[in-house]
Amino acid sequence: MSDPLARLRVMQGADLPVHGGRTLAYVYDAGDPEIDRIGREAVASYAASNALDPTAFPSLLQMENELVGFACGLVDAPDTAVGTVTSGGTESILLAVQGARDCRPEVVRPRMVLPATAHAAFHKAAHYYGVEAVMVPVGPDFRADAAAMADAIDDETVLVVASAPSYAHGVVDPVTEIAAAAAARGVRCHVDACIGGWVLPYAARLGREVRPWTFAVEGVTSISVDTHKYAYAPKGTSLLLHRDAALRMPQFFASAAWPGYTMLNATTQSTRSGGPVAGTWAVVEHIGDSGYIELARRAFAAVDAIIACIESEPGLRLVATPDSTLVTLATDDSLDPFTLTDELVSRGWYVQPQLSFGTEGPSIHLSVSAGTLAHVEEFAVALSGSVSAARAAGPVVVDVGVVGFIEALDPAALSDEDFDGLLAASGLVGSSAEGDLELPTRTAEVNAMLDVASPAMRETLLKAFLDRLQRPVRSPA
């Protein structure tokens, strides 16, 4: 008989580490094993519970209401505020868009006004719910242009969006001006604080400058806050907060139009595991307000130290001075950013490359958490060594013929054979001797090729890549 847990441990060996403060994307590490233990045990104890029916598992309802109450205290919510626990930031954003659409049934072609830096989850919501995304260029500081956003609001606008902070650059939009413009037209204003919602309030209490973004700003109608980020809870929870219950009501779904039980859902999901809810509640209970102040202090100390490392390295620069815990850096012509990314990864630091967009070139993104502080001196050494190695390696150059070939392709007209050829040419996938797909260990050349492709071609190629990855593995008979 096989040992599935032993096999799990073997397979997990190929994954990024979720502890140690060196994975600067996807995971958020408090640097405290006790927090991790409490979260895992709570998840396990509620893994079979179902948040579908709050009357069947009232303990989950109690935990959700307490989590919402804690968050309301962070974001200056009025006594009328309500909230919902969701599965993550994307679901919180989807529900904010869906609720804004459904509260205006008279609008035939609903639109939402977004800064160009708004999270891609809003484009996903546009795709799912038929709400046109009107993208407004941002200013040179990468913050939303409030005047341009106000000008973009029309009679079909159902939602206006601001970020606190934006993911790609880590800056807070001018929420006060944006929310005022939305309120003047009777339009909802959603603040995407999935990243900042659990850390910016503590930044302010630590004396750091934070632009207004909470419910204290008139005109803000909803805020999304991820608990699996800087609340350091297990993956799978976020909060969508509304200024009052009437604003939340269109988010709910009910159906009695079938012979089974009357379906009633607060989120896009029906069945919801109680595990993530319990894990989040237990972690928040354990850390508490004073604990989060200390974790925020560590995270911002790490941010400041990393900024100093970047500013001391010739060839590197900050793309924007971060308002929160997200740091974005760029290189000059002496360094290839994608090679620098590979070099950092090879030294045990996972950072996230960001491709060119509009007039801005590629950059490197770091999501810094409290657990990183203990390792900033190691990061400084790794960064210096990576810069030297990337400078010695020189830039990654994509053949002009390949560039022309990619530019001439129509993403909508590619066949499966075209996809296979492009994926192989890009280096996204290779084949082992057994014919299995193999992922590249270094991605500079892959990213350089994707960087010259149009956004539409990138999307098409990466969807084909995902399709090739997600194929069944059949057990031998």
Automatic annotation (TrEMBL):
Keywords: Lyase, Pyridoxal phosphate. Signal peptide: none annotated. It comes from the Bacteria. InterPro entries: GrpII_AminoAcid_Decarb (IPR050477), PyrdxlP-dep_de-COase (IPR002129), PyrdxlP-dep_Trfase (IPR015424), PyrdxlP-dep_Trfase_major (IPR015421), PyrdxlP-dep_Trfase_small (IPR015422). Its cofactor is pyridoxal 5'-phosphate. The keyword Iron does not apply. Belongs to the group II decarboxylase family. Sphingosine-1-phosphate lyase subfamily. PANTHER family: PTHR42735, SPHINGOSINE-1-PHOSPHATE LYASE 1. This is Pyridoxal phosphate-dependent decarboxylase family protein. It comes from Nocardioides astragali.
